[in-house]
Automatic annotation (TrEMBL):
It comes from the Eukaryota. Residues 60-192 form the ARMC9 CTLH-like domain. The keyword Coiled coil applies. SUPFAM superfamilies: ARM repeat. Gene3D superfamilies: Leucine-rich Repeat Variant (1.25.10.10). The keyword Coiled coil applies. It is found in: Cytoplasm, Cytoskeleton, Cilium basal body; Cytoplasm, Cytoskeleton, Microtubule organizing center, Centrosome, Centriole. This is LisH domain-containing protein ARMC9. Its main location: cytoplasm. Pfam families: ARMC9_ARM, CTLH_Armc9. Keywords: Cell projection, Cilium biogenesis/degradation, Coiled coil. Residues 448-567 form the LisH domain. It comes from Adineta steineri.
Amino acid sequence: MSQPIDSRINDYINEYLTSKGYSNTVNTFLQERQDHQEPIDEINNENLDNKEKEKETYNTIKENMLKQLDDGNREEFFQLWSEHIPSNIINNDSTMKSLEFLIYTHFAVYYLRSNISDNNELLAQENMEVFKVYIESIRGRAISQTSDLLPLFALPYVTEPEKHASFQELFSDEWPVQLRIKVSNFLDWVFSNRSSPNLVELLQNGERASHVLVQLNNENEELKYRNRETSRQLKNLSTDYYNLINITMELVETLQQAIVGKTITNDYIDNVCARLLLARTQESMSNMLNSSQLGTDDPFIEKLDYGKIKRDIVSISTSAREKALLLQALRWKLTKAKSDFQREKMLESFIGCDLLGCRSDIEQQAKIIKQLSSPIGSDAYYVKEEWARLINTIASLRKGRNYLAPNESLIISMQKAAISEASDTLIKQHLLAALQKLSLRRSVQTIMINQNTIKWLIPLLSHTDRLSDYTLEYGVALLMNLCLRTNGRKKCAEIAEQAITVLSSLLTHPNQETRPYVNSSLYSILTLKSIRDRAMSLNLDNHLRSLIRVEKTNSETKGQLEFLLNLLLKGGDQDGRQTSDNEQDNDDEDQDIMEADLDLADKLRATDKELSGDILIDEHYISQKIPPNNKLQRATTNNMKSKSTNDPVLHRPTTPGHVRQSMAAHAVDSLVNSLAMDDLYRSHSDGFESIIYTDSTKKHFSSNNEPRISNKE
């Protein structure tokens, strides 16, 4: 016979008090229950003894694991880790997965630390190789998109990382100490949960269920939104399909009539063209209408006073520092969004209010262009840099590129501003990256080709010793995208000797991530006979042969070089292999490409008397907060599509950013975030609670020319 619910609750309370050692309270509680003649399920002393023994066992295991961690014994540590830590705890929680990542990082650098007497080079290499394999195993998962950990993905690819300025925090004496505290708290939490009282388990399960319900509700609302978007796109595609079928049928009938001698009038052809143009115009108008409504009455995003924001970012009455801090806060709304969905909704709000004047606000557009073109002063530098960062961030998203691409004046001013930078400043880096991302659009390629972008890029890329890897990668990728066009190749033909010399030297550059873009750029321009003839006179064929002979490790690179040599020697018109000048933009290759570099090396800091980030927005520009039940709690990942082809060179526009979000950027920006005690875990007297990362402890590392790691999609 089952106990009454009240008695069961009292039994759970009694068990909880006993587990916490409240013996006097337990005795009093039991006496009162007996006085009320309540049935009591006496706690089994044997079970309590077993729990005490279990606790001692777990303490022994914990101390052993911490000792292996301190001594750098990777294999022994992970043997214990696999035996005693349930895999579902790690795999189902991104925060716990982050801790595992940091542990692998710790062992990767253990024998590289200056305070380790046994600097075993073989073990150091082995540990780093294991870390590299681990990175490969988690590529594509949510953790590989975590901006706070992204910089550490570069570690295996940096020569002598212990001497690199970007990793100073990682090699400090405090880093392993703080990691040890995290691991200790994590083990306490895991082992204490093994023998939790029933009352604690009931409360924990209730909290988990509540969290899951909120998460499911958020996912459901997001799916509803995306379903509406997909249905709208499907409806437009269906309409276009039936219109094209009708016109095709008419043209077939007309062709049949023409065969039997009936004359086809120009008026009829004009009518067909007009109908095709009308369909395209209606589609464009529909897209513009949808864009103008983006972010309005949306329950998922907070309502901001965009009218005031637009005024303040261009007004002469707003100080340079105030403008810079506001632009920084707007960028953080995108780069620090908790989910891709929230990022997308915030971007839609920016587009809906025409933040940059790319739709119809010509006055706003003119004022922004004026700021990009203005000479740099002390604080004015930050304004220009923050504009460059914000534009680069918007260009990193497909909808952002759709918004920016029609603004020819802005694109031209971005190029002029980048050219005006004498050295490889952060302004130049971010403007160049934004231009490269926009070059995924054919209309933008045409603008850049007409603006002689190629004649700027070739000399720029000839001085690789003065360029950061970020500039180098995006510069070469932009050159490749432009060379895929016929007019782009013709521009290269005008400076053929310089183009061949620069690209030939880049074939031996130590940054391997530029190779696919260099090879494809060479392939594109070598389809022109005039350039092939000039290349032969410059002995490019011998240079390629020598590179093929010495290439022993990378079969893909060797195949690309052989492909180039074959093209150079066999001659013939290969231009048909290149992208057609009439080809449409390919949306499948035009994905969101957020990267850690967008916030990297940002030296703008608010003083004690200034506001920044969300606090600045909330204080001066908020008009309506998101309802609490609509806040998304989960972190989603970008749906990046990988492309594979048998052709060893690229034939479509692409961008290094596709990989920079999954392979590390060049510096350890925000490394302190992954080290601060409260960022990963919060310790409690009776357990261990997982919490999300916070922005309040975020610190930045400033750097300009650190090595970057990327890998072509």
